[in-house]
Structures are given as structure tokens and as C-alpha cells.
Design brief:
Layout (H helix, E strand, L loop, with lengths): L2 E5 L3 H13 L3 E5 L5 H7 L4 E4 L8 H4 L8 E5 L4 H9 L4 E4 L4 H15 L5 E4 L2 E4 L4 E4 L2 E3 L3 H12 L5 E2 H9 L8 H14 L5 E4 L3 E4 L2
Parallel strand pairs: 1-2, 1-3, 3-4, 4-5
Antiparallel strand pairs: 6-7, 7-8, 8-9, 10-12, 11-12
Helix pairs in contact: 6-7, 6-8
């Protein structure tokens, strides 16, 4: 999985981001001051930097000019249009305004990493292998047929593995914001995935919440 540098001086937010990103499989390094970024970059390689704007010693806007082709997502309370435009014009891949949902952060991190070719394209569990880029699923090395919507749901579960997702959230992520169907369609598709993949033990039902893929 990708290695992410989190540069955020609010320790509670930094810790929350680290825990959630680590939960879905990313390796994270935490920094709390803009002045410590140079040392981290000189000793480690990162696939993505999550960067606050208002930092001690050096601001995120100043720091981004020092990075060498490492994708950056700004996560900041500076939500004005001019700030967003400045952050994006400096080369950031995305700009997230606080407060935000952790699922939104995880989703945006995944998008940026896939766009930059830094994320793992292959997911394996048991005798099943999923090629996320090519949208190919194999079971015991034989091609498995999934409908486009079944694959969308599978992809959503994989990118949010180990995270409990409500039926409404799965509808939002896998079907789209404009989907007007009932949440029971999620249950139907989950049953189909479990049967086709043989993943009864991997796709867990979370009582009073929804589902979680154990990864």
C-alpha cells in the first residue's frame, strides 16, 4: 500500500487521520510542524502528502513549492475561494476544507493515488484476486463474471476495507448520489457478491450499521 506523510499541527486531527488511513491499509508518517518536513523527505519516500496550510514555522503554501512531484492534498480550515484557488494553482491535487468526514478523506486519497499510479491495483483475499484498474476478478485463477454494479460495490468495499459502511453510504459511494432506490438493493448485491466470491467470512454484517470488508 501507499506511504502517506501527514503534516498537521492539530494532534487530535493528525491522529484521527492516521488511524483511519492505517485502518484501510496505508502506511502513515506523522509530522506536526512545517519545519520538520524537510528532514522527513530527506530520509523517506512518500507517495502522497496530506498538508495543512496553517502550520508552525512554514505554511503549507510555502512547503508545497519544495516538494518534488509528490501528490499533495491540502486539508485546512481556510475554506475561502481564493485560498482554494491558490492551493490548486500551486499544484495540489485536491483541497479539503475542515471539518470533513473521514470517509471523504479516504475516498479522495484513493482517487489521487490511483490518478498518480501510486496505489495498489491488486487486492487478494482467499482464492480471489481483484484487478481494480482492469476491473477483472479471478477465483482460483479463473475469470469470474460480475455485473458492473456488483464490481462497483466490490470496489467500494475494497477501498474502504476494515471500515463499517452503512447501507446509505454504500448507496452513495457505489451507486451514486442521485440513486433513488431502496437500501435493500445493497443487501441483494451483498448476497450476490458473497456467493460468487465465496466471501461469507470476508464481507461481514455489522449489526445496526451495514457491512464491512475484512482486509
Amino acid at each position: 500500500m501507499a506511504k502517506i506523510l501527514i503534516v498537521e499541527d492539530d494532534r487530535a486531527i493528525n491522529q484521527l487521520m492516521m488511524r483511519n488511513l492505517s485502518l484501510v491499509g496505508y502506511e502513515c508518517c506523522q509530522i506536526y510542524s512545517g519545519g520538520d518536513v524537510g528532514a522527513a523527505l530527506s530520509t523517506q519516500d512518500f507517495d502522497l502528502i496530506i498538508l495543512d496550510v496553517m502550520l508552525p514555522e512554514k505554511s503549507g503554501f510555502d512547503l508545497i513549492e519544495e516538494f518534488n512531484k509528490i501528490p499533495v492534498i491540502f486539508v485546512t480550515a481556510k475554506g475561502g475561494l481564493n485560498d482554494k484557488l491558490k492551493g490548486l494553482s500551486l499544484g495540489a491535487q485536491d483541497y479539503i476544507v475542515k471539518p470533513f468526514e473521514m470517509l471523504e478523506l479516504i475516498a479522495r486519497v484513493g482517487v489521487v493515488l490511483r490518478r498518480s499510479g501510486k496505489d495498489n491495483e491488486i487486492f487478494k483475499a482467499g482464492d480471489v484476486e481483484v484487478n481494480l484498474k482492469k476491473r477483472i476478478v479471478k477465483k482460483n485463477n479463473e475469470l469470474l463474471s460480475l455485473t458492473p454494479q456488483e464490481f462497483n460495490l466490490l470496489e467500494t468495499l475494497i477501498y474502504n476495507k476494515n471500515v463499517a459502511l452503512s447501507r446509505d453510504k454504500l448507496l452513495e459511494l457505489a451507486w451514486g448520489y442521485d440513486y433513488e432506490g431502496e437500501t435493500k438493493t445493497v443487501d441483494v448485491h451483498i448476497r450476490r457478491l458473497r456467493k460468487k466470491l465465496g466471501w461469507k467470512e470476508y464481507i461481514q454484517t455489522v449489526s445496526k450499521v451495514g457491512y464491512r470488508l475484512e482486509g
